[in-house]
Design brief:
Number of strands: 0
Order of helices and strands: HHHHHH
Radius of gyration: 15 Å
Shape: globular
Helix content: 40-55%
Strand content: under 5%
Structural class: mainly alpha
């Protein structure tokens, strides 16, 4: 489940519009629903505490890196996994699907988990969470 590496790179540099029609259908699905998801309560906090942190950890102060592009590629990845899960479950009714994703993809019930939740009965389990992944301030 996921997005082709070259598609992620194009989205990071040129946005979702860089996806071709086939990729957009597969990864994004309904564009209106995809972009409206940013209005979900808590989405701003999710971006600040998860996606922005991941961006800083990965790129630091790299002037060539785009936080907006990284957000767009994260959104595409989350939606692509959700779309693929819905497709697989639709093809195999009654099947249990277990997807192992990093904690940020299920944090605040957003990310991949949130994009999947309207479609299917979804449960999330954090395995071995750290203080950092639970946003617990130990200092």
């Amino acid at each position: 489940l996921g997005v082709a590496r070259d598609a992620v790179g194009r989205v990071q540099t040129r946005g979702v519009a860089a996806l071709n029609d086939e990729e957009r259908q597969r990864y994004v699905g309904d564009p209106k629903r995809f972009f409206e998801y940013t209005e979900t309560p808590g989405f701003d906090m999710f971006v600040k505490r998860c996606i922005d942190r991941r961006f800083r950890d990965r790129y630091g102060d790299d002037p060539d890196a785009s936080a907006a592009g990284y957000l767009a590629s994260s959104m595409v990845r989350d939606q692509a996994v959700a779309n693929e899960a819905v497709k697989l479950l639709g093809e195999r009714p009654g099947t249990l699907l277990v997807a192992i994703v990093d904690a940020d993809r299920v944090a605040f019930n957003l990310g991949t988990r949130g994009r999947l939740a309207p479609s299917k009965n979804v449960a999330s389990v954090l395995v071995n969470p750290t203080a950092a992944s639970t946003l617990l301030d130990l200092e």
